[in-house]
Give the backbone structure.
Amino acid sequence: MTSEQADLQRIIDSARRLGVEVDDADALQWLTVMAANKHGEIVVDEDTGVYGLNMTMLDFSPADLAHFREIGRLVEFADEPGVVETALALSGSAAQSKIQTYPGDADYFERVNILAPTREDACRICARIMREKALNTAKGDTYQLIEVKFGSYPLEIVRDGSKKAKGSPISWTADDIAAGRITGASADGEPIQVTWDEVSVEPGWCKLDWVVADPQRGQLANASNMLDVTWEKPDGTIVPLDGYLDPYFQEVYLQAESVPIFTKLSKFVSPDALEHYVEQLEHEIHKYLNSPLNYGKVAKRMYNIFRLTGRYQEAVFLRELFDEPTTILYQVWSLIQTLDDWLVSGAVLNKQPVLEQCDQLIMAVVDALEGEKETEIVRQLLRLRRALEQQHQGEALSAPVVAARAEVINIVNNFFYDKLSAVPEIAAYMEKLSK
């Protein structure tokens, strides 16, 4: 037995002691493919037309592709010949649906390349298409825009009772965007106004978030689109408007027709992209190990780090963990985040899908778990559901909802912590990043 096989066997034995089912043949096959493809290539699935990095495609299942393409029609930006060209992708758990049996939100990533004579022209076009997108998708029968991230505060401002630091990203509502400005005050109480046009010269972090109702599934979901906006100069040089061209380590692109655009842009990705990506994920792990504590998000980010940096044995454990029936508990976070957005946004979407989603989650927990753990989780979910029945849209979360939510989150955190901390290599890694 080689040292690699011995390491794998040790991880498999640890997983089984923790009650995590491991398919030995599947784990070995995944390790073999990862070792062979560690330098990375872009592959296209000819049957579906989706494409992405080879190791990313190993984790993608097309089972829900039609569902994600339907939501994609809401969140995507339209091409404008000779001006705007795009490539839309799935990211997050939606891009890893083969291993994450119970994915969370509908997260998208879109490359938006703007062809313009000057950077100023490119920024103006970016501001225009984002404003048009936000206003055109502000509200519908099955969706509601929650917020748009665009531009940065040019100075410190107090907004809605909260201090916003100079240079921090601005969050806009649909009403803010329609008005073309946000208002606040200085530390001395002097009125301050920041306009959409004013901040467009440095678009910074560009992201849109919606709550989307799925009538067929009887569910609400968060749908987001993170944009990587670039300016293509007349000489063909590609310049990211936020100063950094994002890598493509976790995206599954949805249209084969966008391959030429993706290929053109990928040539300008920095040679240090992997190092920067890992540092970014480690920063997020540090955050979720402290506040807000979320061991499920920690596990997802560690998986992406481990598979990209050659720590394949630990990656195998996490890969199998997220394929466990018990990881349906991860959906609790997604449900609660969606509830938060739905309740405080004043969305006109029907409350019934929210209650039905709670019911579905309760039944799934009953099917997946057993014993005291099932009893406690079901009890807290029922408590959360009863509190939600009395909750009204557009109001701050009631005390019973907040209390029930905290209990459920604590239970889910304990589940993931127990599994992660029982593997010495993973426990040591978390300990290092928590400081």
